[in-house]
Amino acid sequence: MPHEWRIAPQKDVPPALREAVGGHPLVARLLTQRGFTDPQQARAFLDPTQYTPASPYELEGMERAISLLNASIERGERVRIWGDFDADGETATVVLFEALSAAGAKVDYDLPLRNEGHGLHPRAVTDALRDGVSALITCDTGIGDGEVVAQGVRAGLTVIITDHHDLPEELPIAQAVIDPKMLSPNHPLRELTGVGVAYMVARALLADGEQAQLLEEMLDLVALGLVADVAVQVADVRYLIQRGLEVLRGTQRLGLLALIRAFGSDTSHLDSSTIGYELAPRLNAAGRLADAHSAVRLLLTHDEQEAESLAQEMESLNRDRKARQEAVLAQAEERLARDPQARRRPAIVLEGENWSLGVLGLVAGDLAHRYERPAILIAHREGEPSVGSARSVEGIDIHQAIASQREHLVREGGHPMAAGFSIPREEVAAFTRGLWDWLGKKAPQLQAPPELVVDAEIPWRELNLTLAREVARLGPFGSGNPRPLLMTGGGSLVRVEDISRQRETPHRRLHLDDDEGSPLRFVWFNAGDLPETGERLDLAFYLATRSWRGEEHLQLELADWHPATPPAREALANLVAGREVVDWRKKEGTQQLLVQLRAMHGENILVWAEGLPSPDGEGLTRSELVGRRAPALAILTAPPGPEALRWVLSEVQPQVIYLLPPRATQALASSEFIAHVAGMLRVALRDHDGWIDALRMAGRIGARRASVIAALRGLEARGKIALRYEEQGLRAYLPSETPEDIEMCENGVSAPPEDTAECRNRAEEQARAALSYLLRETQAYRQAYATQPVEALLSAEP
Question: Would you call 663 exposed, middle or buried from its count of C-beta atoms within 10 A (0-12, 13-18, 19+)?
Fold first, then answer.
């Protein structure tokens, strides 16, 4: 689907943030665009060791729940966990089981079968009473099952609800209810999923410190469940995923290791993508197509043989899941192709006979992603209510939309991005009309053309593995922390490669070259219309890394392309050689710009200026910049040459460079230049025992260092001085003080003795020619500096 592109507003990056974040300037810029302007806040976002997590007791109902659990443990009563059959519910079940076991509870667990549906099934109560269970604790479910909860409480069960789904109009009458949706919208625990809430219970239950190692080891499952359930990655959720990914990469959990081997990977490069695309689908497949108990056993087992057997079972179920998903998706796409209007509605709503319930949500997710609007699939069943599964897009609360049609439903539940419901078949048409009407009023953005918001433009030559690693510092990515969308231009399509591996999904790899023949490859998953070979393109893409045979590689993932247009994006900062460049060369009011920069950066900016007719204290010369580093550098005068510019950038190591309107410098003829150098030479002979600081001299007159050396060589050839490189540097001697081992000749220092007038004349001519050439080059470079493209001006290559 074609997109309009919009450039994200470019905000000023606080200098203190640049200093705190370090690395590539793009990182600080992206943090600023995402609202992180405080250095400590940014450090806590990037580094979980800098983050202070919230207390479990900030969750309402936690104190009561822990009191009830401890009482059951002390009395030796049986405790049962009732989980859910998706990856979040499975991992939550394991976390609670391990925590309660460590606390000394007589605990077991149970989960619903797929045909029983999500939620606290009536069987949970009847089985618990039959088995002599005293306390029933749910995880990832129960908040919407007030009637079943009431049955259990009336029968004498202690019922503790831990859930994260949206709250019903009336809370169940359980003895304790924990749900982060009861917190304020900005609370750091608000976005926890089922496994996150279960982990908070574990932390509170095992707070004496004796089980600190167990709490640490559980974090692999916490990250797995949070990512699998597409948790909003903010505050404590992000912290738990960051910590959990670290634990997951070193996990000793036999079931996870066997499952990872089953899909042909290892733990060294596991990330949130591995969870989302590999681990979670396999755990979900057990609950969707068979029995989630096998997934829980896999995560709990301490037997290698059982782990291998269960992992292979998950692998087989996942293959079956893929086949069913592709079959339902193909039917859905066929219907949308026959009825294009259906995919332009506020939500895609499709019905099918006997569609596999286990893949409805997955196919809905595929359609929502492809058509950028909520999607609902409804499966009709003989003699039973129809079952619907919905997936949404950012900014549209699909659960609220479905709940608005509650009068048509048997039951419903979910959260903003995903929801499920059951509905009498005869109510589907009225439900659909009501849903479209509600979305049309509450989500008018669905009527607008789809839009991509580009975070930053990156020059073609800057796209490399180093930059990808820097961007990865902002990860893990997901809901609430999306991957930065970048753009580049100047590439021409060379060829397109089909990488679908005989699947129906149209995955392609686009090979492009820029004008200088520098190649880049872009992977396009679920590719749309392809450009013509040879066409020049602007590309919107995501920057990533991938591991292949133990090595890390750059991966550019294409999001969209447009025919190339002339750059008209002044608001976007340039990125060249890993630095952000603000090009103000054509602006007016240099003095005001300097005041603005000093107010913005304070002591964190250096100003480079040389060769001004009358030094005004506004800048530092090269010799004054030696050993000085700063996050920001402003260039006030045109450099004398590219080597001087590279030297200053190497010395200062700025993250951001400001190219100011270049102030006029002295343009000296050869004779004037030699006179200036001779004057500085006299000072060196008089005050510094002849020691020459050629860099300082060059800075005083805004010249290349080589030009100063050429002038000194000319003075030497005329017999004014003798030069010698000694251990401490270059030194000049007056003729009357010249050491005996210095011979004056065209070859310079330590040459064979050829003290003839011809030799001196030849040396002087060569020095004058060299100086004249260097001064012309300096003048030409300064003239080009005002208009040269930033990429060419600041290229890292000599």
Answer: middle
